[in-house]
Specification:
By secondary structure, this protein is an all-alpha fold. It has 5 helices and no strands. Helix 1 runs antiparallel to helix 2 and helix 2 packs across helix 4. The radius of gyration is 21 Å and the shape is elongated. The N terminus is likely disordered.
């Protein structure tokens, strides 16, 4: 659970809803927000990279960086990652988790009023099943011995 800051802005950026501040300008505050929340440097760097790539994708499509997150754009970005980039489900889920955190940050600072990225946007990943054809005879012998020893 995230720490709640008593200040509406919490030192993470301007609280102007619908202002001319782009999400690119909010990225630095987001990194500070993650640092203050105890995220590791590796996670913070990864999340910052994911948000930057979302902003770059948006700018390439619409000509300007986004000022807010919109549900339709998030779903379009997800579709782009699946169909154009052919990302693995784990990678897409990383982006979705990152954008959920970024959405929470924007709400915390008053830069956005609603959650537009949801957990249900993640892709379900089926656990891999063991294929008997992938077993080596040494694996089978080892298993049989363990069963015998009991």
């Amino acid at each position: 659970m995230r720490k709640k800051n008593k200040s509406p802005v919490g030192g993470y950026g301007s609280p102007l809803i619908g202002s001319e501040i782009s999400l690119t300008e909010r990225l630095e505050g987001f990194v500070k927000y993650l640092d203050d929340d105890g995220f590791s440097k590796q996670t913070t760097d990864s999340y910052a990279g994911c948000v930057s790539r979302y902003i770059k994708w948006f700018g390439g499509l619409f000509g300007n960086p986004p000022k807010l997150l919109y549900r339709e754009n998030i779903l379009d970005f997800k579709s782009y990652m699946i169909n154009i980039k052919k990302y693995l489900p784990e990678t897409i889920n990383l982006y979705i988790c990152t954008l959920i955190s970024f959405n929470e940050y924007l709400i915390t600072i008053g830069g956005q009023t609603e959650m537009v990225v949801r957990n249900k946007d993640r892709i379900k990943i089926q656990a891999k099943q063991m294929n008997p054809n992938d077993l080596e005879s040494a694996d089978v012998d080892s298993f049989r011995q363990k069963v015998l020893e009991g």
